[in-house]
Amino acid sequence: MGIRILNGGFLTTVQDMGRYGSQETGMAVSGVMDTRAAALADILVGNDENEAVLEVTMMGPIMEFTEDELIAVTGGDLGAKVDGNPLPRYEAVLIKAGQTVSFGGMYGGSRAYVAFAGGLDVPVVMGSRSTNLKAKIGGIEGRKLGAGDEIGFRSPKTWLPNMAARKLLLPELSSREHTLRVVMGPQDDCFTEEGISTFLGSAYTISNEYDRMGCRMEGPVIAHKNGGDIITDGISFGAVQVPSHGNPIVMMADHQTTGGYTKIACVISVDLPELAQCMPGHTVRFKKIGIEEAQELYCQWRDYLKQLEKELNCPAEPASELQAVGLAAAVNEDRRYWGDHGTYRVVVNGTEFLVELKREIEQFR
């Protein structure tokens, strides 16, 4: 079938890249907090990057697999294990039926992501499988996962092309100090020059009031010209609200669709994953950049994802006719066999195997 939840952990939900197209009705986008980690997890197991994953917050779940499946765990290091042994992160790993995956600590970052090859069998609600906890829709009955929940796999896989290459370098998550790049506006003209300088020149500490809706920070007061209230307008993921109390609040994945506080800036898309992995007590500084630079950084990230997906999913090319002639000649003249290297799918009695071949020389007797 899929997975059986034995313990749901602190906050484990089903999320994808979000529920777009319904904000005009008041429906939040939701989706994963760390879009970078979630996208990489999906690509590592051959999924579209918008496929639903499990978002694991701080203390992770315990889940038993009832069917063989390839998974990838990315994001924060929350002590992922399989049957009590360390489970590699940022790597496609085959989990067998009967094995148990658990999370046992917080060694860096605050959120981990688990992607399942072929996707989870979760209903699509308003174009997304994401869990909206406040509206109680999406995911599993619109709530966090708990003991006894079962989720099936839509199209489980035990092999993928280029398995040996489905491994990425682990990100550095040990820092407690972070610099987030921002594009100023849309209400930066509501702040004094001193207020702008304070915002860009001060360190802010992430408070305990940090959840999927927003990240409240504490530090030097950012001065307004005429208070922090405005006529309500739209809000985006990463918008930095500054109410009249003068401290910033960064809107996160479950942010409301509109709000009536001044927004001094917006954290750029490629830096939001770093904030998603922060913890209360970490310090943040804001750095101003132009919108053109922000767009260029985003385009570079998109290009990287496309290239990674292409490299991992490119099947091994069959030998050309010329290569085949050369192989035959080698066998006839030298009685030696040159095996073409690559990754191949082999089906034996209905069971699929992924075979990695390396170039070898074999002397015939």
From TrEMBL:
Q: Which NCBIfam families match?
A: urea_amlyse_rel
Record organism: Enterocloster hominis (ex Liu et al. 2021)
Question: InterPro entries annotated for this entry?
Answer: CT_A_B, Cyclophilin-like_dom_sf, PxpC
Q: Which domain of life is it from?
A: Bacteria
Give TM segment ranges: none
Q: Which UniProt keywords apply?
A: ATP-binding, Hydrolase, Nucleotide-binding
Q: Which residues form a coiled coil?
A: none
Note whether Transport occurs among the keywords: no
What protein name applies here? Biotin-dependent carboxyltransferase family protein
Q: Where is the Carboxyltransferase domain?
A: 24-304
